[in-house]
Amino acid sequence: MPPKRNKEQIIAQILDLCKDDASKTRIVYLVNLNFHTVNVHLELLQKKGLIEATKGDKTIYKTTPAGERALETLRSAEEICS
What we know:
Strand content: 5-15%
Largest sheet: 3 strands, antiparallel
Structural class: alpha+beta
Oligomer: single chain
Low-confidence stretches: none
Mean pLDDT: 93
Helix content: 55-70%
Number of strands: 3
Strand order of the largest sheet: 1-3-2
């Protein structure tokens, strides 16, 4: 059984995936979350200004410049802690 991920690792995965634009379905499958859990994370990231949502046929999520800086910080912290 793989080790459990912490919230910071999940957020980093979402921010990384959304650098190239991603739908909610893509995030769910590639980050391995369920739709309830992904909604909680996406709302938090939007509220903090780390991702933005573009509504069209499908809502597309994109990492903001602030989100890219946060991702770098999360990666640095993980590197220090591992």
